[in-house]
Each structure stands twice: as structure tokens, then as C-alpha cells.
From TrEMBL:
The keyword Transferase applies. InterPro entries: Bact_2-comp_sensor_kinase, HAMP_dom, HATPase_C_sf, HATPase_dom, Sig_transdc_His_kin_internal. SUPFAM superfamilies: ATPase domain of HSP90 chaperone/DNA topoisomerase II/histidine kinase. The lineage of its organism: Bacteria, Bacillati, Bacillota, Bacilli, Bacillales. Signal peptide: none annotated. This is HAMP domain-containing protein. CDD domains: HAMP (cd06225). It comes from Paenibacillus phytohabitans.
Length: 596
């Protein structure tokens, strides 16, 4: 027999992999929670900011709207349905009006001007028939007098002008800016007889925004008709670059009149959300929102993430300590105990019987030690006859050899895999040992022998993994009822693995059960291993010259052949065919017996 020496380099332990997996999982969960928390906070902060801005714009717009309504009412007194309108209509209708009529119209206009609550924002009020007649009420005395020569310089003052607040202009009669408001004058029969022109100071809007809280990097915008302006303190600055708002649909405003859009101005690196609220028809007040208002503080979020990472590291250290005490140390003790069993120390160790799952494994190892001791201490007491005695003596020679190889497999398995799979191996070994120790049948059905072989191969499969495969091909299930000496196939498969496949590194075993002749069974065990020379085959099946070399020298193929001939006669037994480097075929010829 050839013994292989297996050494492995343990790259990582199960404990370290579990801890690494838990740490990665915890970090992943923490990162996902942080990400979704960040997005959720950003969403609600954006929503809250939009709602607060909408409320502020509504409040300011309603105040501005009241002044604009008052100023519109002032223009309406000159336009229609008032005593002032009647005086203006008569004055414009008269071909040769007297100075008194002009004074009466001026006094009425001035009285309406003074009575208006928002007159402080009215820069000038002009009425004209667009044919040379005009009157003006001026709120200041610093402007250039209105004459027939300069009235044409006033933009929008024409015969077909309609009601509008559409732009901010520079007053041609002074150095101030204002918002012109133009309205038709209607006479009898709703016939247009002239035009009212009122210039409102831009302070009508800017005064209401002095206490307005404007966040950093945000802007206030004013839209008059198709013209757009930026409000900065008392200044109203025209926006000269293209102003192209795009509808913003990710959030919805509270009020039905509020509109949300996205606008990118020339000096901005990115687009901003714009909240717009209509003051009145043609007048819209807007505020841009800085993206900094939506995102939580980056420094705080970094500290939170670092805290989470530190917490994961601390928890990983605690888990490492716990797993070391509850798993690593007990597993190391179990491994050492298995090593001692492999070295021949079968004493029971109660220190490995903990109150845990690993304690169950420890108790199983102690029971295994007891079974092995019981097996080694058992003695053959059957004195039936010489043939039975020789049979049992030959069979007893197999047990220590088989046990030796099995324990080596367990030792190898425990070393490589830190005892993973030991329960299944020990279960199979227990079944094999139980068959040896308690099954007194000299012959057993071929079906039971194949079951024992399955237990043995399961143990070897843990040792060699996928490098060794075993396939059974049964010609007829009835052949499995035929009798065969116990533990006949195991030594053959063992020989195929250790001496045929193991030196080659990989191989397959095929077991075939077929009928031979009229009443015989042929069992073949074929492997594609390294094969044997003819001299080896003849030496294996011949009787050794030196019987004093020890029990292990007689165990194996020769023992199988001798037991078959003792059980069934010289016509039956083992034959071997092999080609070096190609294959080995071992053939067992048995009589088809179903009872002894």
C-alpha cells in the first residue's frame, strides 16, 4: 500500500470569513440607509423650502397687488364712469375749451390723485386725446414740464394703447425709472376719446421686499408682460440674456396659482428651481432656489458615516472575540482530539462535551472512540470449524487495515476543513464498524455489500473530492440477491483508489454486476488509474514466501481471493487484467447463491 502525505495552507478560517461577511453586510446596510436617508431628507427639505417660498411670495404679492389695484383705480377714474371722466370727456369734445375747463379737469384729477391710498407710488398721471390736448398731474416738482414737443417721447402713449403693465422704463421727463400703465378713456356711447398714462415708481414693488428673507445664492425676479427683471434691494435690473423657463414636475406647489420651473441664468453654473406667483395679470413675482438649500450639511453627513463605520468596526471586534471563545477554541480542541484518535489514543475526553452543537460533535467523537476500543477489544470466539475459523481470521486481518486507512481519511478531512463534514464521515464509519463488530453473517447479499461499499466510498469522497468518482452498473436487480463474503468489494475499491487513481491524481471507478454463464455472477471493478505490471499481478495473487512480515502484508487482494475460494471453492475467485498507465480490471466470479 502507498501512503500519500497531504499538506495544505489555510488561507482563511470560517470565523474570519463570517466576520468579514458580517462587516461587509453591515457596511452595505449602513451605506444604503445613509443614502436613502440623505435622499429622503433632501426630498422633504426641498418640498418644505418650496412651500415656504410659495407662502412668502403669496404674502408679498398680495401686499403689492393692493397697491397696483389702487393705482389701477386711479387710472379708472379718468377712464370711465366718474365725474373726472365726464370733465375729461367734455374737455376733449370741446373744440375751443376755456382755461376754466382745463383747470376744472386738472383739479378733479389732482383731487382723485390725492385721495388715492397709493398715490405716493404714482410718478405722474397724464390724460390726452392724442390730438394735442393733454393734462398732467406730477407727484414731484423735479421733472421736465410736459409740452406738446416732448409728449411724443413717452413710450406707449398712443391712440390704440390698451391696459397693460408690461415693462420698466426710464422716465423721459426725469431721471427715475417707472412702470407705465396705459388705459383707454371712454366717452359717451363707450367711444374712445383718449388715453390715460400713469407712471408708477418701481418702489411700489421694491418697498414690499425690504423685509423679505432671501437665502444665500437665491434671487428675486419680476416679470412684466414679456420682460424679466432681477430685484436687488431698490434696484430693478433687466435680464438681457435669454430667459427660458422649463416646467419642473418633480414637486407640486400647494396653491393652484403657483408655478414651478427650472431656469439657468448666464452667471449660474447650473439650473435652479424657480417658484413663481402672479401678483396680477401681467405681473409675476418669482424666487430662485439654491441647491444648497436642499442638501443636508455635507460635514455632518460625513461625521455620521464615519460614526457608522467606527460602530461596525467595534461590533466586528466584539463578534470576533465572541466567535473565538464559542467556536474557534472548541473546534481547535476537537481537531486535537481527532489527531490523538488517529495516533491511537482512544481515551474518552469529557472536556469536549460542551452544552452546544459542538458538544454534540464531541460526544460523537467519544462514542467513536468507545466503538473503536470495543472493536479492538472484541475477540473471535467462534470455534465452529476450521474453514469458518480461517475465514474469520482472514477477515479479521482486514479490519485493522481498513480502520487505519479510514482514520487517516478522517484526520485528513479534519485538518483540511476544520472538522466540517465530520458528522457525515463518522456516521458512515460507524455503520462500517457496526457491520464488522455486530454482523456475524459469513455471507451477505450483494445488495448489502454494495451498501457498505457506498459508506466506504463516501468517506473517500470527502478525502479526494471530485477527483475520484464511482459508478455502479447493474445488469439485473435480481443478481443483487446473490451472496458474497462480507467486505469483499471494499479492499478492491481501496486498492483501485490508493494504488491506481491516487498516483495519477484523478480517475473513475466502474463497478459492473452481470450474469456469467448459466448460474454464476461476474462482478468487475475497473479503474483508469496507473495500471500494474504482469509481475505485480502474479505477486499479488501468489502466496508470500515470508509469513512473518506481519498481518498488514497479507491484507488486500490476496485475502479476497483466498476467502472466495474458501467460501465457494477453487473454481471461483479473483482475476486481474491491467495495462500499465491505462487501466486495471479486477473480476470476481461468484456462484449465484441466495442462501447458504
Amino acid at each position: 500500500m502507498y501512503k500519500g502525505v497531504f499538506t495544505t495552507v489555510r488561507k482563511s478560517t470560517i470565523k474570519s470569513r463570517i466576520i468579514l461577511l458580517m462587516a461587509v453586510f453591515a457596511l452595505l446596510i449602513a451605506s444604503l440607509l445613509s443614502f436613502f436617508s440623505y435622499e429622503l431628507i433632501t426630498y422633504y427639505q426641498r418640498k418644505t423650502t418650496i412651500q415656504a417660498t410659495e407662502f412668502n411670495l403669496q404674502l408679498v404679492s398680495h401686499i403689492i397687488e393692493q397697491d397696483l389695484i389702487n393705482l389701477s383705480a386711479l387710472a379708472m377714474t379718468c377712464s370711465t364712469n366718474s365725474s373726472t371722466n365726464s370733465l375729461i370727456t367734455n374737455y376733449f369734445a370741446s373744440k375751443n375749451p376755456s382755461s376754466k375747463e382745463a383747470v376744472n379737469v386738472f383739479n378733479s384729477m389732482q383731487q382723485e390723485f390725492l385721495n388715492n391710498r397709493s398715490n405716493s407710488y404714482a410718478r405722474r398721471l397724464i390724460v390726452t386725446d392724442n390730438n394735442g390736448k393733454f393734462l398732467q398731474v406730477d407727484n414731484t416738482g423735479t421733472s421736465v414740464p410736459l409740452t406738446i414737443h416732448n409728449i411724443g417721447h413717452i413710450a406707449g402713449l398712443n391712440a390704440d394703447a390698451e391696459e397693460q403693465w408690461d415693462q420698466v422704463i426710464k422716465d423721459p421727463l426725469s431721471n427715475t425709472n417707472g412702470i407705465p400703465f396705459v388705459f383707454p378713456i371712454y366717452g359717451k356711447g363707450a367711444i374712445r376719446v383718449g388715453t390715460v398714462y400713469m407712471l408708477a415708481n418701481t418702489s411700489v414693488i421694491t418697498d414690499k421686499l425690504k423685509g423679505y428673507s432671501l437665502p444665500k445664492n437665491s434671487r428675486l425676479l419680476l416679470t412684466l408682460g414679456n420682460h424679466h427683471y432681477q430685484l436687488t434691494g431698490d434696484q430693478v435690473t433687466a435680464i438681457t440674456e435669454p430667459y427660458e423657463p422649463v416646467a419642473y414636475t418633480n414637486d407640486k406647489p400647494v396653491g393652484p396659482q403657483t408655478e414651478l420651473s427650472m431656469v439657468k441664468l448666464t452667471d449660474d453654473k447650473e439650473s435652479h428651481i424657480v417658484v413663481s406667483y402672479p401678483v396680477r395679470s401681467g405681473v409675476i413675482l418669482s424666487q430662485t432656489l439654491s441647491n444648497d438649500q436642499f442638501a443636508p450639511k455635507a460635514n455632518i453627513w460625513i461625521l455620521v458615516m464615519l460614526g457608522v463605520v467606527l460602530l461596525v468596526i467595534v461590533l466586528s471586534a466584539i463578534i470576533t472575540l465572541y466567535l473565538t471563545r464559542t467556536i474557534s477554541l472548541p473546534v481547535e480542541k476537537l481537531k486535537k482530539r481527532i489527531d490523538k484518535i488517529a495516533q491511537g489514543n482512544f481515551l474518552i475526553d469529557r472536556n469536549i462535551e460542551w452544552k452546544s452543537e459542538l458538544g454534540d460533535v464531541g460526544r460523537g467523537i467519544n462514542r467513536l472512540s468507545q466503538d473503536i476500543v470495543a472493536l479492538m477489544d472484541s475477540r473471535l470466539a467462534d470455534e465452529k470449524q476450521k474453514q469458518e475459523l480461517e475465514y474469520r481470521m482472514l477477515q479479521s486481518q482486514i479490519n485493522p487495515h481498513f480502520l487505519y486507512n479510514t482514520l487517516n481519511s478522517i484526520k485528513w478531512m479534519a485538518t483540511i476543513q476544520n472538522a466540517t463534514g465530520i458528522a457525515e464521515m463518522t456516521t458512515s464509519l460507524s455503520r462500517l464498524l457496526r457491520s464488522i463488530a455486530k454482523d456475524n453473517r459469513r455471507l451477505m447479499p450483494l445488495k448489502d455489500e454494495l451498501s457498505l461499499l457506498d459508506d466506504y466510498f463516501l468517506i473517500q469522497k470527502y478525502r479526494y473530492g471530485s477527483t475520484v468518482t464511482m459508478v455502479k452498473e447493474i445488469e439485473n436487480e435480481e443478481l443483487l440477491t446473490g451472496l458474497i463474503p462480507r467486505f469483499t468489494l471494499q479492499p478492491l475499491v481501496e486498492n483501485a483508489i490508493f494504488h491506481g487513481i491516487e498516483p495519477k491524481g484523478r480517475g473513475d471507478i466502474i463497478i459492473t454486476v452481470s450474469k456469467s454463464g448459466f448460474a454464476d455472477i461476474l462482478v468487475t471493478i475497473e479503474d483508469n488509474g496507473v495500471g500494474m505490471k504482469e509481475e505485480q499481478i502474479s505477486t499479488i495473487l501468489s502466496t508470500p514466501e515470508d509469513e512473518s512480515k506481519g498481518m498488514l502484508e497479507n491484507v488486500g487482494l490476496r485475502s479476497v481471493n483466498e476467502r472466495l475460494q474458501l467460501a465457494f471453492g477453487g473454481n471461483y475467485g479473483l482475476s486481474i487484467e491491467s495495462e500499465l498507465g491505462q487501466y486495471t480490471i479486477m473480476k470476481l466470479l461468484l456462484p449465484f447463491l441466495q442462501r447458504e
